[in-house]
Design a protein that fits this description.
The structure is a single chain. The protein is an alpha/beta fold and about 475 residues long. It is about 35% helix and about 20% strand. The chain has a 9-stranded mixed β-sheet, with helices on both faces. A 6-stranded mixed β-sheet has the order 17-18-22-19-20-21, sandwiched between helices. Strand 19, helix 14 and strand 20 form a beta-alpha-beta unit. Helix 3 packs across helix 5, helix 4 crosses helix 11 and helix 16 packs parallel to helix 17. The longest helix has 17 residues. The chain is globular and about 70 Å long.
Length: about 475
């Protein structure tokens, strides 16, 4: 982070200074256990924890000052309490906006979409890191807190920022863009994630398009030509548009896509008459689209197609619980894709599972997809049909929200079981799993299905040692 005095911080956030305004902070911390000497400790008031209770611990750990909504031990800057968003989080956004405004010679890539944005962000980061210092954090720090922290925690000299932008409703992405001022905007797709929050897929597209509307005239909009709602966003762009996809009309295009038995993909990358081979080690055909988006960013910043293809072929899965493959004893393959789920990402994951050879027994272990509103029951029921298409041998459904997938599975003749919780599911799978089975775990974040994947993995590994 750029060094800032408390005088500057108070001015930037419109806060009240208590104590010595000449104190300079050199970093940001939101957890007293991760404070480094010289940090500004941010006393966020959350649903479970009030950061003000940890101010003394933060000072003892080396914090130089505190950003807070109630006066604490000096020196500190006090900001008004927020209504929908905590006041300290809003203040962090203002500080990040200020720092971003001082960065004139950087490319800032904003990535949004209903699914695939984290994997796309990770791929873009790995491509750009081959030509410059790149800030592309693992995971999904894509909200009002995570995005400002990503900007503020970047090392000095960063040339490329790759920021994921999430939304729960209208105006959320516009708010993040107001902080980040992206120069390149990438939209992966428009699906039904959060449809229960915004009411229609048209509103989801409108919310995602806020990224494209924010781009400057000298920016670049990178749009999925295979998604008509995304492609329509070109009309909102005041800047250059680059398209990607399998469509013949796409500028950055994939052809001759071949799936291997281990879930990896080979394809030919085409751009303006030039072609390069890519071997993508990320699991699932859907990652081809994510790789194309990354390639489009690469050419936008001046990279050559051979260098982009090499970077993509060297790319690995960076963020946890996203098609994370574990090769276990007895030849069992466990795919932990439990970070999040919506109807489109569920379909993509099941298609990836279906790409495994027919002589391997396939398990789809699923739990609820949230924020789908009135579409929820049908969306869960559709999972069973997708499982049939993927030649799934065992459909394990966990929890009441996902029960329609079990009911539909029985109607379609699937070997389906419904279980009320993770513990019972772990027992069931542990007793049934056999050599060379392939197990996919997929659900919305709040379902915590990564815990089940870990329990099953532990059982398999312990069984091999017995």
């Amino acid at each position: 982070m750029h060094s800032l005095s408390l005088h500057e911080i108070a001015r930037i956030v419109g806060g009240q200074l208590h104590g010595d305004g000449n104190v300079v902070v050199t970093g940001i911390a939101t957890n007293s256990q991760s404070v480094h000497s010289g940090d500004l400790f941010c006393a966020i008031v959350g649903q479970r924890v009030n950061g003000h209770d940890f101010v003394e611990a933060a000072y003892l750990a080396g914090a130089r000052a505190v950003l807070c909504t109630s006066p604490v031990t000096e020196p500190c800057v006090v900001v008004p309490s927020g209504v929908e968003i905590d006041g300290v989080i809003l203040a962090l956004g203002k500080i990040a906006q200020h720092v971003r405004g001082s960065l004139s010679d950087v490319e800032l890539v904003g990535v949004t979409g209903s699914s695939g944005k984290t994997s796309t962000k990770d791929l873009i980061g790995q491509v750009l890191s081959t030509v410059g210092v790149t800030q592309s954090p693992e995971g999904s720090p894509n909200n009002e807190l995570g995005l400002p922290l990503t900007i503020l925690q970047a090392p000095e000299g960063t040339q490329f920022y790759v920021l994921e932008m999430g939304m729960r409703g209208m105006g959320h992405i516009a708010y993040l863009c107001d902080i980040a001022h992206p120069t390149i905007g990438v939209v992966t797709n428009v699906g039904r994630a959060h449809i229960g929050e915004v009411g229609s897929i048209e509103n989801i597209a409108l919310a995602k398009s806020e990224l494209i509307s924010s781009l400057p005239a000298d920016g670049v909009a990178i749009l999925n030509a295979d998604d008509e709602r995304v492609l329509a966003m070109a009309a909102l762009a005041r800047c250059q548009v680059v398209t990607f996809g399998e469509s013949e009309n796409a500028e950055m295009r994939a052809r001759n896509i071949v799936m291997s038995d281990d879930g990896t993909t080979d394809f030919v990358l085409d751009y303006l008459g030039d072609s390069e081979h890519v071997h993508l080690t990320l699991i699932g055909r859907h990652n081809v689209s994510n790789a194309l988006a990354a390639a489009a960013v690469g050419v936008t910043v001046g990279m050559t197609l051979p260098d982009i293809a090499q970077a993509l072929s060297s790319a690995v899965s960076k963020s946890k619980w996203r098609m994370e493959r574990h090769e276990l004893p007895r030849g069992v393959t466990l795919i932990n894709d439990a970070y999040n789920a919506n109807p489109e990402s569920m379909l993509a994951s099941l298609k990836a599972l279906g790409g495994y050879p027919a002589d391997r027994t396939k398990w789809a272990v699923i739990a609820g997809m949230h924020e789908l509103g009135q579409d929820s029951n049908q969306a869960h029921a559709d999972i069973a049909a997708h499982a049939v298409d993927a030649d799934v041998n065992h459909l394990v459904v966990i929890g009441e929200l996902a029960r329609p997938a079990y009911d539909s599975g029985l109607e379609l003749g699937l070997n389906a079981v419904w279980l009320p919780n993770i513990e019972q599911a772990a027992d069931y799978i542990g007793q049934k799993v056999a050599a060379r089975d392939v197990l996919l775990f997929k659900a919305s974040r709040s379902e915590g299905l990564e815990r089940l994947a870990a329990l099953v993995q532990e059982q398999i590994e312990k069984g091999a040692q017995a």
